[in-house]
Amino acid sequence: MFKFGYVAVLGKPNAGKSTLINRLVGEKVAIVSDKPQTTRDNILGVLTTKEFQLAFVDTPGIHKSGTFLDKYMMKNVRTAKASADVVLYLIDSSKPFDKQEIEHIDKMRADGLDVIVAKSKCDKTAKNEFVCDVEFSSVTGEGLDKLINKILERLTPSKTKNFLFDEDEFTDKPLKYFVAEFIRESALFYLNKEIPHGIAVDIIEFNDKPSETFIQADIVCSKESHKGIIIGKGGEMLKKIGMKARLSCEQFLGKKVTLKLFVKVEKDWHNKPSKLSTLGYN
Ligand SMILES: Nc1nc2c(ncn2[C@@H]2O[C@H](COP(=O)(O)OP(=O)(O)OP(=O)(O)O)[C@@H](O)[C@H]2O)c(=O)[nH]1
Ligand SMILES: [Mg+2]
Predict the structure, then answer these.
(1) Contact 52/152 with Cβ under 8 angstroms?
(2) pTM for the whole thing?
(3) How far is the CA of 214 from the centre of ligand 1 (A)?
(4) CB 3.0 to 4.6 Å from 85: which of 5, 156, 204, 239, for a disulfide?
(5) Does the fold of domain 175-275 match that of domain 3-153?
(6) Which amino acid residue places its CA nearest to atom 16 of ligand 1?
């Protein structure tokens, strides 16, 4: 018997959604950072075995809407929920209990969604006594088998192999998308406060040859003062961002990468619908 299902992974920003999907899929499909609101788009991560295929959908962390970008992110959460066979809702065990989250889970169940509530980061000191269906850690791997079994229990078996994706297919985004995201991840790593959240990445050139890839990209920010910080004294910050991003690109593409980065100011880019997804590479 075979099983297939779409699993929407939901939760507050920083709950560990992207880290979990990367660990389960065994590929880096989604960037990760210690800062909230890292993921902006819905990203597919497919786990295929002989008996089952699970199509995980990573989503932006649930937060209040402000800019067009926030609205875009929350629309992605709604879309993922609407097409999911199972919703996997993560509660961060290292954060205090939040009553609003429980109300949200109850509401999803009342709306007829099949919700598994899982406690993430169980390798850390628990600050949250809420009883969940399963606990896991994406760092140690503890609880992951149980988590997969909980998902599989909810899916209907089929005599035929009802997989929607090829066995070697693990995501739905083109290479350029990952390149743009790795640059954003590196910026999130080195920059602080509101600056990394005010960044978008535009790939200007992507020349993929068999032995080497040449990439030119713009880091788009909304303020002149941010541009100065992103470039840094004597270009030091931009160099650091570029080096870390280049290594991630080389690892992902499996070849040498030349990465040229520029910084551009585009006031209010996050209120422009055309700029919202990591940029048009959806
Ligand atoms: N100790 C520990 N840290 C974790 C675990 N899972 C994720 N983290 C850390 O938690 C932080 C947030 O992880 P992400 O995977 O980016 O969280 P997210 O839910 O995708 O966040 P958004 O995209 O902002 O909604 C990162 O610093 C991760 O390294 C875990 O199981 N254990
Ligand atoms: Mg994420």
Answers:
(1) yes
(2) 0.95
(3) 31
(4) 5
(5) no
(6) 32
pLDDT at 282: 38
What is the DSSP-derived secondary structure letter of residue 227?
H
C-alpha distances in Å from residue 124, one per residue of 32, 49, 118, 140: 18, 30, 15, 11
The CATH class for the domain spanning 3-153 reads alpha beta
Residue to substitute in 32, 101, 120, 134 for testing ligand 1 pocket (most ligand atoms within 8 angstroms of CB)? 32
Domain map (residue ranges) of the chain: 3-153, 175-275
pLDDT digits (tens, 9 = 90+) for 180-195: 999 999 999 999 988 8
Atom of ligand 1 at shortest distance to CA of 22? 15
182: phi then psi, degrees, rounded to nearest 5:
-65, -35
State which of 9, 10, 12, 14 you would mutate to test the pocket of ligand 1, scoring each by most atoms of that ligand within 8 A of its C-beta. Answer: 14
Nearest CA to ligand 1 atom 24: 37
CA-closest residue to ligand 1 atom 7: 16
Q: Which residue, judged by its Cα, is nearest atom 30 of ligand 1?
A: 121
Residue 208 tokens, joined: 């993929």
- Tokens 């919703």 belong to 87
- Provide CATH code, domain 175-275: 3.30.300.20
Q: Is 47 helix (H, G, I), strand (E, B) or coil?
A: strand
Q: What are the tens digits of pLDDT across the range 148-206?
A: 999 999 999 999 999 999 999 999 999 999 999 999 999 999 999 888 888 999 999 99
Cα dihedral across residues 253, 45, 55, 138: positive or negative: positive
Tokens 């499909």 belong to which residue? 29
- CA angle 43–48–52, rounded 5-degree value: 115
